[in-house]
């Protein structure tokens, strides 16, 4: 199908892909119900686990003594599930991931601008530097294969914060140079505005975050 400017568009996908010149791929109007379900599967699972852990630690043992052992069992099960490596070959897990990546674009207004779309080789390897990561890298959904915006299957993206210190963080650059892969810079405008967030300024939490290389952040918004 062609648009008003004579550029070709793909049909039956979650994006509009212009095949000539500078490419603009925008998330099409998908089902709102499926978009909400995708957000609930991702964000809802995170909040459910946090709420369950908090309830087991602070509510159940204090209110009902009989549930103390069960609470410990639930916490141990959650800890075990965190330590066990994820099965990347699971069909069920991959189906859920594809559903989230495809229909999540129907909730966030994502527009992807690509220069020289025809230069990307589906058989080639690329290193994408995505900025900023923010709370959740929702913009990265537009780069995944289920979104049908890019011709590159099995895409893996390395993300970090918007402030990049190249002197101390050369990992993704080294990977590209060592493997002879093109380095593609990406910046997502509006990524930091997806959710409101608050970072507790507590020295103990700062030390823990430094050790774990993960910042404890409280964030909120629609389905977040």
UniProtKB/TrEMBL annotation:
<keyword id="KW-0472">Membrane</keyword>
<keyword id="KW-0808">Transferase</keyword>
<protein>
    <recommendedName>
        <fullName>Acyltransferase</fullName>
    </recommendedName>
</protein>
<feature type="transmembrane region" description="Helical">
    <location>
        <begin position="40"/>
        <end position="60"/>
    </location>
</feature>
<dbReference type="GO" id="GO:0019432">
    <property type="term" value="P:triglyceride biosynthetic process"/>
</dbReference>
<keyword id="KW-1133">Transmembrane helix</keyword>
<dbReference type="GO" id="GO:0004144">
    <property type="term" value="F:diacylglycerol O-acyltransferase activity"/>
</dbReference>
<keyword id="KW-0444">Lipid biosynthesis</keyword>
<comment type="similarity">
    <text>Belongs to the diacylglycerol acyltransferase family.</text>
</comment>
<keyword id="KW-0812">Transmembrane</keyword>
<keyword id="KW-0443">Lipid metabolism</keyword>
<keyword id="KW-0256">Endoplasmic reticulum</keyword>
<keyword id="KW-0012">Acyltransferase</keyword>
<dbReference type="InterPro" id="IPR007130">
    <property type="entry name" value="DAGAT"/>
</dbReference>
<dbReference type="Pfam" id="PF03982">
    <property type="entry name" value="DAGAT"/>
</dbReference>
<dbReference type="GO" id="GO:0005789">
    <property type="term" value="C:endoplasmic reticulum membrane"/>
</dbReference>
């Amino acid at each position: 199908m062609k648009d008003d400017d004579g550029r070709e568009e793909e049909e039956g996908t979650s994006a509009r892909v212009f095949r000539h010149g500078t490419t603009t791929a925008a998330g099409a109007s998908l089902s709102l119900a499926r978009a909400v379900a995708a957000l609930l599967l991702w964000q809802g699972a995170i909040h459910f686990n946090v709420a369950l852990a908090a309830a087991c630690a602070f509510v159940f043992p204090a209110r009902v003594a009989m549930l103390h052992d069960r609470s410990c069992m639930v916490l141990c099960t959650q800890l075990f599930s965190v330590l066990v490596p994820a099965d990347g070959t699971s069909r069920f897990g991959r189906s859920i991931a594809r559903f989230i990546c495809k229909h999540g674009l129907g909730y966030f207004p994502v527009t992807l601008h690509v220069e020289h779309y025809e230069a990307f080789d589906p058989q080639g390897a690329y290193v994408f530097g995505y900025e900023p990561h923010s709370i959740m890298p929702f913009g990265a959904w537009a780069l995944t294969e289920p979104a049908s915006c890019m011709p590159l299957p099995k895409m893996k993206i390395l993300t970090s914060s918007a402030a990049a210190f190249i002197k101390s963080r050369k990992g993704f650059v080294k990977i590209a140079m060592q493997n002879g892969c093109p380095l593609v810079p990406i910046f997502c405008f509006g990524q930091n505005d997806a959710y409101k967030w608050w970072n507790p300024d507590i020295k103990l939490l700062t030390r823990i975050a430094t050790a774990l290389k993960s910042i404890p952040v409280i964030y909120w918004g629609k389905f977040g």
